[in-house]
């Protein structure tokens, strides 16, 4: 009986340790941001398009550059109302006085769309993989990072108008965020998933002529991330902060469609 009670006690201790939760400190920020983009689209074959773009992002109330990123990708429409695609993005992040080491991102997309009267509805699912080139502790930041991005969009075709207004909503779900441990040198790396971003937006596309397009938009972006910090020598948890970023994003994009 004593052995049985000892075994049960040991199992309860292990279960309580495995179920231990860490409560983060909370940090809230608000920022106005901007995006300026130039893009090119070329239909290289029937139902197959090549797209390329360069985008500059501003932060700190439009005062500083956040990043410059370049992208190239392919989109294929095998059947009407459905397309698949993939693209590569080179991300050059910027902090005050310096450029960060670049990150490499690969996106795989599936999108379906239907028309209902003058409305066009679309749902896009994107698996986003980002590879870092700087040295990171995988208990603090995963490399590569995996995110599932789900975007719903509604466009309205105004009769006899070159303007097409739209609404969009997007959710980001992390797929391999690192779980917090008391000491990373004594623990096994495990991952978690949670909704990390909510984004709602409104915009309008302007068809200037057959080849030239403009897109004006505003997004409200809520980004929830976790800053995990361990002591490098001992491995003990040093800091754990939930960073809630509230961003107002104003953007303009120009596309030349060949």
Structural topology:
Blueprint: H1 2-18, E1 25-45, E2 48-59, E3 64-79, E4 82-95, E5 98-99, E6 103-116, E7 119-132, E8 145-156, E9 163-174, E10 177-178, E11 191-192, E12 195-207, E13 212-230, E14 237-257
Parallel strand pairs: 1-14
Antiparallel strand pairs: 1-2, 2-3, 3-4, 4-5, 4-6, 6-7, 7-8, 8-9, 9-12, 10-11, 12-13, 13-14
Detailed description of the structure:
- The protein has one domain (22-257): Porin, CATH 2.40.160.
- Helix content is 7%, strand content 67%.
- The protein has one helix spanning 2-18; strands spanning 25-45, 48-59, 64-79, 82-95, 98-99, 103-116, 119-132, 145-156, 163-174, 177-178, 191-192, 195-207, 212-230, 237-257.
- Strand 6 and strand 7 (119-132) form a beta hairpin.
End-to-end CA span? 81 Å
Task: Give the total of beta strands.
Answer: 14
Tell me which CATH architecture applies here. Answer: Beta Barrel
User: What count of domains describes the coordinates?
Assistant: 1
Mean pLDDT: 92
Into which percentage range does the β-strand content fall? over 45%
Strand line-up of the largest beta sheet: 1-2-3-4-6-7-8-9-12-13-14
CATH class: Mainly Beta
Helix content bin: under 10%
Order of helices and strands: HEEEEEEEEEEEEEE
How many strands, what sense, and barrel or not for the largest sheet? 11 strands, mixed, barrel
């Amino acid at each position: 009986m004593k052995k049985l009670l000892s075994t049960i006690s040991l199992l309860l201790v292990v279960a309580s340790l495995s179920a231990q939760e860490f409560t983060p400190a909370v940090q809230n920020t608000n920022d106005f941001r901007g995006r300026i983009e130039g893009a090119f689209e070329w239909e290289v074959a029937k139902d197959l398009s090549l797209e390329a773009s360069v985008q500059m992002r501003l932060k700190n109330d439009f005062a500083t550059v956040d990043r410059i990123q370049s992208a190239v990708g392919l989109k294929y429409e095998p059947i009407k109302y459905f397309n698949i695609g993939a693209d590569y993005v080179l991300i050059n992040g910027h902090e005050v006085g310096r450029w960060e080491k670049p990150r490499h991102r690969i996106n795989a997309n599936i999108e379906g769309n239907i028309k209902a009267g003058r409305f066009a509805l679309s749902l896009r699912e994107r698996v986003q993989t980002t590879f870092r080139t700087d040295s990171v502790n995988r208990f603090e930041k995963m490399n590569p990072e995996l995110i599932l991005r789900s975007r719903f969009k509604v466009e309205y075709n105004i009769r006899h108008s070159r303007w097409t207004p739209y609404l969009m909503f997007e959710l980001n779900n992390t797929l391999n965020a690192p779980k917090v441990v008391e000491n990373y040198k004594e623990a096994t790396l495990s991952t978690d998933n949670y909704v990390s971003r909510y984004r709602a937006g409104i915009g309008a596309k302007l068809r200037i002529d057959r080849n030239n397009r403009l897109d004006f938009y505003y997004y409200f972006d809520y980004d929830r991330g976790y800053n995990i910090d361990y002591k490098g020598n001992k491995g003990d948890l040093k800091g754990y902060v939930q960073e809630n970023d509230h961003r107002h994003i104003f953007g303009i994009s120009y596309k030349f469609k060949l």
